[in-house]
Amino acid sequence: MKLPKDPVILVSYLNTQLRDFYPSLEAFCEANEADAEAICETLADYDYIYSKTLNRFL
Question: Sorted alphabetically, which InterPro entries does this protein's record hold (predicted)?
Answer without folding.
Answer: DUF4250
